Amino acid sequence: MTTRSGALPAADFYDFQALLGGAEKAKLAQLREFLAQEVLPHATDWWNDADFPGHILPKIAALDLAAPDRRQFSHLFTGIVVAEMTRADTSLATFFLVHHDLFVQALIDFGSDEQRKRLLPDALALRTTGAFALTEPDHGSDVAGGMATMVRQVNGPDGTHWVLNGAKRWIGNGTFCDRMLLWARDADTGQVRGFFLDASLPGVVRTKIEHKIALRTVQNAHITLEDVRVEEGDRIASVNSFEDTNKLLLGSRVSVAWQAVGQQLAAFDVARAYAVERQQFGRPLAAFQMVQDQLVRMLGNATSSFAMMVRVAGLQDRGDATMAQVALAKAHTTAAMRETVALGRSILGGNGIVSDYRMAKIFADAEAIYTYEGSHEINTLIAGRAITGVSAIV
Asked: What does pTM read for this prediction?
């Protein structure tokens, strides 16, 4: 009986990565080497300290993974990148998603030629960082219809500008970002407006949300906006309603479902290595039938989630993925993830509740994935509406 985890099969048990092209496989190998050397050895300390490693951003930029659609990478490659980042550190992967999938992609999809020329090069190179300011203190899943942050257009002798008032909450990267894609309701028309807001403007106050039990490395902010003057040049002129952003939100929801895959791969990695090496009653934990059952259930959940996301990636490549299909994927993979990380935590016993063994961090971070980018319940109801033709969302 082998006890060397290095000789055992990969957590990608069905070898889905074999579906990638040659250049994509080479880029994936580069990413894995970077994560193994620069992230994994330090991620638990960052998490324990609730400290974001800003010094690592130039190294992430050097990987040249931003805006993969511009580099003709497949959606499968893009998803596996997210899964691999999450496998090493969920917090760093979340930073990457907020900055690239939401802020940078919004510049690409909705920015004017002038905005892209002015803001995109630095954002792609991570010389500047972005955030996505949507959620509010009293509005989460219902924020599109209940948005309380208001903006009013002002026409004066020096031209048109806008004045923002309100608050945003749970804004990832919000404490340190240079700009944020911020949404507000037009006080005169009721339309939802979008802005590439300079986060250093007078009237913008950013406060770090403390005492989190998940994604501790991510710097979530509570943001208040008091008479913040925004120039017309920073308004997203091509967006007149929140519905205009469906393409953007679909892509970010897919990415979070891929995070659920990566979180399960991480849990399996840690649990299997522990079960093979840990001795109890004179033999490794892996020699016990119940432990093998738990590991197989973990691998089954991870593999079925991976397979579902491979298919979603194929639909994206064809341009056929719907929000309902993506909602089902996010709901299903995160529910499977919750069971997987719980099984992994159980295998580690008491060591599963301290971050020294990684599993406690993996277990806790899974709760954030389960909730953000549409809670499990909201995604379930989106899929339910599609398959019944009846909406259960009030």
From this structure: 0.94
